[in-house]
Amino acid sequence: MRESRLWSWHIISAVIILAFLGIHMIIMHMGAIWGALGTGSGHPVRSDEVFRRSQQLFFMITYILLLGAALFHGLYGLRSMLCELSLSRILEKAIGGLCAAAGCALFVYGSYVAVAVYRMGEMRP
Amino acid sequence: MQNRLKNRLGLWGWLGGGRYGVERYAYALHRLAGLGILAYFIMHIFVTGARANGPEQWERTMEFFQTPFFKAGEFLVFLAFAYHAINGIRLILVELAFMIGKPGLPAYPYSYSTLRQRPLLIATMVIAAVLMIIGGADLYLAIK
Description:
The complex is a heterodimer.
Chain A: H1 2-28, H2 31-36, H3 47-54, H4 57-83, H5 89-123
Chain B: H1 11-15, H2 22-48, H3 55-64, H4 68-95, H5 113-143
Helix pairs in contact in B: 2-4, 4-5
């Protein structure tokens, strides 16, 4: 039952990633195309562009949602792949625990960065 | 993790498609691409963390990654993303039993699930290839 629920979340997180990472990819990996077409600066990783986006509430929230969904999706996928190698039960539990701990730590760090950069914009006079 | 069959083939059971056909190999490649994306994503979290130290630190970090080696690596990640995302849509559709037809009595000429899934695989691979070409065009324009 627990595995079925986790698997359902794996698919739900994939849909969330598809939507938000799709937006991220269109902005970040088509920057030169947008620039050539006359929309956008063509330099999406330039600091003024990055900070302008990161200091908007929409982007801050979507970054955190994307972070959570991608960490769950990726680490659950990794755990599933490793557990398919017929490991001992203790090792499976250890891998599950390690993936959960790494996911939580990365989520806290990534969320802290997203909120800190957003608040830099709020503090600006 | 209860009631699972033992993977007697080890790593080959993980990668090999056996008689399942090209769809099963597409699934194995999907997982490999996923592992690559996960490794990149964890690094990406730390690299983009440089934003928290202000614009100057961000510029310095980005300067470090403006070499052809990292540009090529970034493009490889884009290829993996395009494949993983589009093939993932196919896997979700098949998992939820969409686009594979309804079950019916076995009447000649027999229709089997692999044959029904093949057009979906071809369509998704074409879409993934188009995305990869767009990503390549962006890289070309960026370095030109």
